[in-house]
Amino acid sequence: MNTVEHPESGGSRRAPPPGRQWGRLGTRVLRAPGAERAVVYRVPQLCLGILTPLRGRCRVEADGSPPRCTSLVPGEVCRVPQGQTLRFATGGTPRSPTEIAVVELAWHPVDEAGAGGPGGPGGLPPERLTTLRSFDPHLAAIAAALVDAAAAGADERYGAAAAHYLATHLLVPQTAAVPRPGGLTTHQLELVRCYVQDNLAGPITLDDLAARVRLSRYHFARRFAAAARESPLQYVTRLRVDSARRPLRTEDTPVSQVGRACGFPGADSFARAFRRHVGCSPSEFRRRARHPG
After folding, report:
1. Which of 115, 142, 233, 245 is the most buried (most CB within 10 A)?
2. Burial state string for 254-267 with b = 16 or more CB within 10 A and e = fewer than 16
3. Is there a contact between 158 and 22 (Cβ–Cβ < 8 Å)?
4. Where do the segments described as Disordered lie (predicted)?
C-alpha cells in the first residue's frame, strides 16, 4: 500500500494492526494524529480504494486540478480510483488520533460481479463507483468488520468471499446518499451525524436529536428511520459499539472504562449491546483481536 504515515509519540495506545492482503482484497488502518501532521495515501493500480473514519472526523483532500476537499465522519465513505492521492488532516491528537479504515478492492472481483473493470468491454467506467464522500453506513460497517477480521487472522476463504460481496454491493445502484421519500434530507442527516459523533460519550436522547432538525420526536423518529433504514436508537447504539472496537483492540484501558467512554451507562448494557452487534463479549473480542488463531 502506498502510504506515508507520520510517527507518533507517547501514550499507552498499541500500534495499529498491520495491513492484511487476501489476494483480491486488502485492508489496514491509517492513524492521523492531527491537523499539522497529515497522512498521505495513494490508491494502488488496478484497485478501488474505500476509506472511512473508524473514530473521529477528518478532512480529506484529493489531488487534482483543482483539488477537491471534504470532511468525513463515521458512517461516511470515500471511494476513489487507482492512482488517486489523498491527504488526511484531523482534529485528533497523538493520544487520541483519528483512525481511518482503508480497504483496497481489486477490479477483478468487480469484473466478475458484472461491472467490467476500468476500460473493460461493457464495463462501468471507474467514476461510476467513485465519490469523495457518501453516506453509506453499511459500507462503513463492512470496512470496520474487515479490519477486525484481519486483526483476528481471517483466512483466504474469508477474503475471497468478502471481496465478492463487496464488489456486488458496490454494483447496486448507489442510493444511500439520496434522501428516501418521507425521510430526512441529506443536510438533516449530516446535522444528526455530527451531533451524535460529537456527543457519543454522553447521554443522547430522542429529543436532543429531534431538536437538531427542528422536528417533533414522532416525526423525527419516523423520518430518520425512512432515511437511514434503522431507528435513531439503533443508529446511536451501533456507532457506540463501533467506536468501542478500536480501543478494545489497540488500548489497555479496562473494558468497563471503554464502555463508559463510548456512552454506555454500565458494564452490563455495554456487554449486551456489544454481543448483539459483534457476536461476542468485549473481553472475548479483545482476546481474539490480540491473539488470533
Report:
1. 245
2. ebeebbbbbbbeeb
3. yes
4. 1-24
Asked if 266 and 222 sit in the same domain, the reply is: yes
Average pLDDT along the chain: 80
One domain, residues 63 and 200: no
Run of H or E residues at 103: strand 98-106
Query: Has residue 176 been placed in a domain?
Result: no
Q: With respect to residue 54, please indicate whether it lies within any of the assigned structural domains.
A: yes
User: Which residues, other chains included, contact 97 with Cβ-Cβ below 8 Å and sequence gap of 6+?
Assistant: 8, 31, 32, 33, 34, 56, 90
Please indicate, yes or no, if residue 99 is contained in any of the structural domains.
yes
b/e string for 143-167 if b means 16 or more Cβ within 10 A? bbbbbbbbbbebeeebbeebbbebb
Based on the domain organization, do 12 and 37 belong to the same domain? yes
| Parent domain of 143 | 2-171
Cα separations (Å) of 293 from 152, 153, 154? 7, 6, 9
Residues ≥6 apart with Cβ < 8 Å to 128 = none
Is residue 62 included in any domain, yes or no?
Answer: yes
Would you state the pLDDT for residue 38?
77
Quick one: 197 and 266 in the same domain?
A: yes
Sign of CA dihedral 267, 269, 272, 276: negative
3-state secondary structure of 289: helix
pLDDT at residue 34, as a whole number: 59
Q: Please name the residue that has the C-alpha cell 473514519.
A: 53
Look at the alpha carbons of 288, 280, 55, 43 in this order and tell me if their dihedral is positive or negative: positive
Contact 29, 41 (CB under 8 A): no
R_g of the chain computed on alpha carbons:
19
| Pairwise pLDDT comparison (293 vs 219), residue with the higher score | 219
pLDDT band at residue 5 under the 50/70/90 scheme: very low
